[in-house]
């Protein structure tokens, strides 16, 4: 069995992100940090004008590319996210679609930019193949994704409370690098650590970004006051705060075809 291939419920993912759309930008601090870094990686090279923002969400970074004079296609699985992006007029074109089956012609964009979206795909290799197919020769694909070990504080705390799985399993860095192997690429990993003064805002930050949906199904066990207290007691503290770590892989793929 190929461990890099999952079976995700895309309908449920689109629903979770769609519901999070209106509050998303106020809670998506991690996405903004990783997206800024991803932009610096893409801008290090002078590529063409047409940008695909794949898994654009509210279009925070579509707008950044548009401000730079690029022609931007904003694409997302979630109609709720895409509607929000369209209301803000962040892009030139809006496309509801799946990164793993792009409704775009081959060689039709110069830059594929995908910030923290491909971790929701079934198969990273398939997603990268599609992004590569639509990118023209000489173009660039930049993506960021969550790596195994992310949210480990939360996972460990839950393990002390019950036997259910409460966090998603993300790919190890090795599998991400392997998926990039067919192309001229560079992958690096960075750690981001957030601190919360209370547990509830930490949990809400995950909900707000639509990240509470589990790849293998709905979260089990109702969040009662008793369970919340037990989780609070089990959660590690750092100077009185609740830390939450994310391991992020950044990939740069050159389109040499
Ligand atoms: C964590 S958000 C990131 C949004 C945006 N890139 C940003 O930086 O703020 C992930 C987004 O990817 C979208 N998404 C998830 N799976 C997708 C897929 N297979 N194809 C297209 N979009 C997808 C979700 O609907 C969501 O809007």
From TrEMBL:
Top-tier EC class: transferase
Catalytic activity: malonyl-[ACP] + S-adenosyl-L-methionine = malonyl-[ACP] methyl ester + S-adenosyl-L-homocysteine
Keywords, in A-Z order: Biotin biosynthesis, Methyltransferase, S-adenosyl-L-methionine, Transferase
Record has ATP-binding as a keyword: no
Lineage: Bacteria, Pseudomonadati, Pseudomonadota, Gammaproteobacteria, Enterobacterales
Function: Converts the free carboxyl group of a malonyl-thioester to its methyl ester by transfer of a methyl group from S-adenosyl-L-methionine (SAM). It allows to synthesize pimeloyl-ACP via the fatty acid synthetic pathway.
The protein's Enzyme Commission number: 2.1.1.197
Similarity comment text for this entry: Belongs to the methyltransferase superfamily.
Gene (name only): bioC
An example molecular function term from Gene Ontology annotations: carboxyl-O-methyltransferase activity
Designated name of the protein: Malonyl-[acyl-carrier protein] O-methyltransferase
Organism of provenance: Xenorhabdus khoisanae
